[in-house]
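Escalation from tier 1.

The customer reports that the assembly of three entities below gives different structure tokens on two consecutive runs. Tier 1 could not reproduce it. I'm attaching the input and our single run for tier 2 to review.
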Amino acid sequence: MSNSHLFLKSGFPRAPLQNGVGRYICQLQRITLKFCKNNGSSRGMREFIEKQLIDFAKENPGTVVYVKPRRHRTPVIVAEYLNGDREWHNCRNLSKEEITQWITLMKTQNGSSSSLRLRKMWHTDMPSIQGPWTPFTLKNPASNLVIFPNEELSKPLDVEKSATEKLIELFREQRLSEGKLEENRGN
Amino acid sequence: MSILKRTQQWATFARTWHIYDCTWQNPFDSAKVVKNHLMGLHKPIYHPMNDCGDHVVLINTGEIALPGDEWIKRVYFHHTGYPGGASWTLAWQLHEKDPTMVMKKAVYAAMKGNLQRRHTMQRLHLFPDDKVPEEILGNVTSQIKQTRVVPKRLDHIDKETLENFPAIMDYPKDYVLR
Amino acid sequence: MSILRIVNAFNRSLVPHQRTVATSAVLGVKQIEVQKQDDTVVIQAVTSESPRQALLLKEACQPKFCPECSLGLDVKHTDVLILSQYVRNDGCMLPRRITGLCKRQQKKMGTLVTMAQKAGLMPNLGPSSSKKDPKQRFGWRKYNKYYYESSIKY
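Tier 1 run:
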């Protein structure tokens, strides 16, 4: 019933301040790459720093890149966002392609992906084009002038013709045909 | 909420008052229709936590029709909680005591047995005959269609139809009409 | 008219064990008409025409007619106007030789008439001593009832 006991917050995918509608601002504020200069687990990270980091930094002038060599520690990426979120990711034994993928993900995110449970995978500012439903949308406006209870409105729909009604109709047709016969005879 | 959104919310969640005539209707079939309106299941905005149910006014609950010999066979069980407090009341006996009870129990049984049921039943208004207080009748804006056709009594049929109704059998010439 | 009388008398003679005891004339109800023509007064006994003659359906004139088989009508216990034509003034059903229905249909009509009477839809077609208003019946009988036609057993 309630979700106050749950630690994982839930929400909907939102773009802060209509990001992208007009100008797009990268939400990644700073990215910190920690690695070891010697250890084999940081090999991918070292390759990434040697080959692709400078291009990355040039492409994203709004993001500050920090490189921290730390001895005897696993390679780590820490991303900090404009809304204050902080995402820490372990890159031990990852190849440079995988590190590139993770960094691209962090660049395109709004905040930390693991901190919010998305209730719906979509969001729209205009959920209804014809206008939201009201009890009066599909109502016949003639019902404004009706005095309740009304007999006509109370009758059920989709009622088969009763045997009595069918008989009356048959008789009417018979009378009509008899009348026509008499007319023809008169003429 | 802005003023525009507030009015939109007010319009979408407006509570309608419906009226339903129970003359010659089966209470259990009518209860199925009535409970949908009471719970708000007839609305596209329905959600159990939404509180979107409407009010329903049931008139002529004393005129309900049960099939066959259900008036004598259908029983309502009640236990006071004390030993020896079990009682089985026949439908016609209950109807004599209180003409609205059969319909009320039918609607209660048709609804889902959750904690919202008692609250939703408070939005149901039952009257044994046509007399409805003016305050309630003034709120009514919609009528729910009946499930069964109301039969016509032979002495209530208008004279014209009676006289012009075709005969499907003629007496033999030597038959004496007593 | 006279031919019918002879035929009826002939039939009666063929079945001698049947005895029809009647205090008044059984063969047709005749009305006495008094007419004055110039000097003479003519007193005639004329058989009254059946009140239903004018409203008779063409198909109903056939010897074997029944609403379900000939016209394909599904008669329910609420079709009181049709059922009341097979019922006498005091609420009793007419016999098969008068209604002209087959055995199955006669039984079905009988059951439908019972249903209609129990439901209180034909209160004026009952014995003179009965209550004409179904609401004044005792106990559970005063409440509305309806029946399912599928429950009829032929």
